[in-house]
Amino acid sequence: MAKLSSINKNERRKKLVKKYAGRYASLKAKADDESLDESERLIARLKLAEIPRNGNPTRVRNRCATTGRPRGYYRKFGLCRVELRDLSNKGLVPGVTKSSW
């Protein structure tokens, strides 16, 4: 089980990313658009730097939905490898069966 403070910090980051998503996307598009003038691109980069650091989508960490574990995360299930194994052995994950040969 991950520390509750780490889980809460990640949740706060998710909220900030959602809050600034539109502004971040538009400024990023302007800054990367090579058809614009250099000064306009620079202004977009400076405005992009004014957005809080935790508003950047790359700062959000994928964590297990049940334990909050940050490593061994499977996107398809939203679980870490340990929980995925436990739940699939119990038959609680649909479409997953233990292989035997």
Please write out the topology.
Blueprint: H1 4-32, H2 38-50, E1 73-74, E2 79-80, H3 81-89
Antiparallel strand pairs: 1-2
Helix pairs in contact: 1-2
What keywords describe this structure?
101 residues, mainly alpha, Helix Hairpins, 30s Ribosomal Protein S14, Chain N, 2 domains, 50% helix
Question: What do these coordinates show?
Answer:
- 50% of the residues lie in helices and 4% in strands.
- With 101 residues, the chain is mainly alpha-helical.
- The chain folds into two domains: 61 residues, Helix Hairpins; 39 residues, 30s Ribosomal Protein S14, Chain N.
- A hairpin with a 4-residue loop joins strand 1 and strand 2.
- Helix 1 runs antiparallel to helix 2.
- The longest helix has 29 residues.
- It is elongated, with a radius of gyration of 20 Å.
- The mean pLDDT is 93.
What would the CATH topology of the largest domain be? Helix Hairpins
Helix content: 40-55%
Low-confidence stretches: none
The average pLDDT value, as a whole number, equals 93
Overall SS class: mainly alpha
Number of H/I helices: 3
Task: Supply Rg.
Answer: 20 Å
Overall strand count: 2
